[in-house]
Write a structure and sequence with these properties.
Structural class: alpha/beta
Distance between the termini: 38 Å
Strand content: 5-15%
Order of helices and strands: EHEHHEHEHEEEEEHEHEHHHHEHEHH
Number of domains: 2
Strand order of the largest sheet: 1-2-3-4-9-10-11-13
Number of strands: 13
Radius of gyration: 22 Å
Low-confidence stretches: none
CATH topology of the largest domain: TIM Barrel
CATH class of the largest domain: Alpha Beta
CATH superfamily of the largest domain: Luciferase-like domain
Length: 434
């Protein structure tokens, strides 16, 4: 069998509660360590042993989901702080962290991410988000609308990139005779005056090893796609349906190309939650076991939120009357469309378990070989350039993914067996920046 012409990009979603809703309650989970270094360090080191390209840290600046028990909610770790902590415990794997452009300033972000890139030897990435909640924590009475948030984000990223290049590559001279560590004539103020920011510059740090640390974006709205196609190296996306993902991939790559960028150097990476068993029967048993940990109150709320309806008069083992269900063809999101299509044949309890497994992404319970088959089919059909691995449970569910599924992809030639290159950009096949 000929070797594949290209290989997948694989990253690990660093969610120590486990991605499957409620599975933190499982006796083999370790919720007591969430928020501490021990478990997150173990996750990063396991991902590095598997040769994954990067660990990804999401973030939230709003506590609402934590209050109601949502275990997918991020925010237990400050991404910048935990990335700094993990640099000393890892050597090759990339570290991608989320920083909001809505509630922060570009000079601070440029400095933080540049420092992480320098300290890690070129392994840092920045997931660029425009927050949709949390304004009360920053003295704001309401959130700006989408257009305003993305206009700010666009200028914000431009300022950060200018700051990263405010030092020439050869600015650090280490001239002992003249007493110069850096040549001041090669450090340039950016003099940015814009609609949202006035930043004189320059940065207080030399240029990052990667030029620009890897830029990541996940917005699927028109504004988000406009920003991501202009500046991002990696695009995280939720795509539960393969054909829809093929269409999204083609349209996104065309938009990237229309802006004079190489679409092959921009990686589109949907999420997947694999439940891995040695046999199909074992995988089904594990999936059923995980489903028993879904809280019925939270599960019902998630069904109602996804389908935008009320089920308070129905038992969990009843189906939702067809006349209440939204028309799948007029659903507001791909995930709502998927759930609306299957809802007529499922009870509320079955729907809440389905939602607990995916959250907008695809999931699969099977053997390593069969899950790899699906991932390769998506990859070969140009539905994606790789996957963000949403491990259902930590650590055992994660270890099954990293120690059984990833080696299956490696044996078939679809994933790297060793790290190649000196920086995260090189290892992922992204555009190199001077």
């Amino acid at each position: 069998m000929p070797a594949p012409s290209r290989q997948m990009a694989l990253t690990l979603f660093m969610l120590p509660f486990g991605y499957h809703t409620g599975v933190w309650r499982h006796p083999d989970s370790r919720p007591e360590e969430v928020g501490r270094l021990s478990l997150i360090r173990e996750m990063a080191q396991a991902a590095e042993r598997a040769k994954l390209h990067a660990c990804f840290f999401a973030d939230s600046l709003d506590v609402s989901s934590i209050r109601i028990g949502g275990n997918r909610a991020s925010g237990r770790y400050d991404p910048v702080v935990v990335m700094a902590a993990l640099i000393g415990y890892t050597e090759r794997i990339g570290l991608i962290g989320t920083v909001s452009t809505t509630f922060t300033h570009p000079f601070n972000t440029a400095r933080h991410i540049a420092e992480l890139d320098i300290l890690s030897g070129g392994r840092a990435g920045w997931n660029i988000v425009t927050s949709v909640a949390g304004q009360e924590n920053f003295g704001m009475t309401e959130m700006p609308d989408s257009a305003e948030r993305y206009a700010r984000a666009t200028e914000y990223v431009d300022v950060v990139k200018q700051l990263w290049h405010s030092w020439d590559r050869d600015a650090v001279v280490i001239d002992r005779e003249r007493g110069l560590w850096a040549d001041g004539t090669k450090i340039h103020d950016i003099g940015h005056i814009g609609q949202h920011f006035d930043v004189r510059g320059a940065l207080t740090l030399p240029r990052p090893p990667q030029g620009y640390p890897v830029l990541v974006q996940a917005g699927q709205s028109p504004d988000g796609i406009e920003l991501g196609s202009s500046i991002a190296d990696l695009i995280y996306t939720a795509q539960p349906d393969q054909q829809k993902s093929v269409d999204f991939y083609a349209q996104y790559k065309a938009k990237v190309a229309s802006k004079g960028r190489d679409p092959e150097r921009v990686k589109i990476i949907p999420g997947i939650m694999p439940i891995v068993g040695d046999t199909q029967a074992e995988a089904d048993e594990i999936a059923a076991d995980y489903g028993r940990y879904v809280d019925p109150v939270l599960g019902r709320q998630q069904v109602e939120s996804t389908l935008a309806l009320d089920t308070s008069d129905l038992d969990l083992d009843e189906r939702i009357p067809a006349e209440r269900l939204p028309d799948p063809e007029h659903a507001t999101t791909p995930w709502q469309r998927t759930i609306a299509r299957i809802a007529p044949e499922r009870t509320i309890r079955e729907l809440m378990v389905e939602l607990s497994r995916a959250g907008g992404h695809q999931w699969m319970a099977s053997t390593p070989s069969r899950i790899a088959d699906r991932m390769i089919d998506w990859f070969e059909s140009r539905a994606c350039d790789g996957f963000n691995l949403n491990c259902p449970q930590v650590p055992i569910g994660m270890n099954r993914v990293l120690e059984q599924l990833v080696p299956e992809l490696q044996e078939r030639g679809y994933f790297q067996t060793e790290y190649r290159g000196d920086t995260l950009r090189e290892r992922m096949g992204l555009e190199l920046v001077d």
